[in-house]
């Protein structure tokens, strides 16, 4: 004779509640989990930049040649990966690996870690922010001497989901200021 075990109905009714509670705790923990991301603060607003990076471009005030620097996130810091320019002059990097480019630009692989970067906008040098290979002419949107503050921020994942990407913020009105 086979013996069948009876299931106590009181215990089986608790499992859905326990699973729902555990699922809720898991979602809450995921939303509160701190993650590092690049934040840009300007004119009282903060937006999120892609971890893959961004570039800053301006026209050198003396040589009148374009200069471009590429940045990305490395852990909890910004990493200046490269600096490209046409002619040597004031501010030219003195360290890094020099690469000749087919575009006629001097290309330095810099790899310098920064805690933060404050960049001053100027119409005179045509300050431009590049995000995802798209140019955003911040010199046309902000007054001269407006500061763009770039920092890696530790932020709860849920807040990251709600924060505008800088690309979206600039695209919405081309002028977040």
TrEMBL record:
Name the record gives this protein: DUF1850 domain-containing protein
Pfam family membership, one: DUF1850
InterPro entries: DUF1850 (IPR015001)
């Amino acid at each position: 004779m086979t013996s069948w075990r009876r299931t106590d109905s009181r215990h089986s009714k608790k499992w859905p509640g326990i699973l729902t509670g555990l699922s809720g705790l898991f979602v809450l923990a995921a939303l509160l989990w701190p993650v590092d991301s690049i934040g840009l603060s300007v004119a009282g607003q903060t937006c999120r930049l892609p971890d893959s990076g961004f570039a800053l471009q301006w026209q050198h005030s003396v040589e009148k040649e374009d200069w471009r620097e590429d940045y990305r996130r490395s852990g909890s810091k910004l990493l200046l990966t490269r600096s490209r320019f046409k002619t040597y002059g004031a501010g030219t990097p003195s360290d890094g690996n020099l690469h000749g480019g087919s575009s006629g630009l001097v290309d330095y692989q810099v790899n310098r870690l920064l805690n933060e970067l404050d960049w001053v906008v100027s119409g005179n040098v045509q300050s431009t922010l590049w995000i995802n290979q798209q140019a955003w002419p911040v010199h046309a949107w902000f007054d001269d001497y407006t500061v763009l503050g770039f920092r890696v921020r530790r932020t709860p994942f849920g807040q990251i989901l709600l924060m505008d990407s800088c690309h979206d913020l600039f695209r919405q009105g081309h002028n977040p200021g």
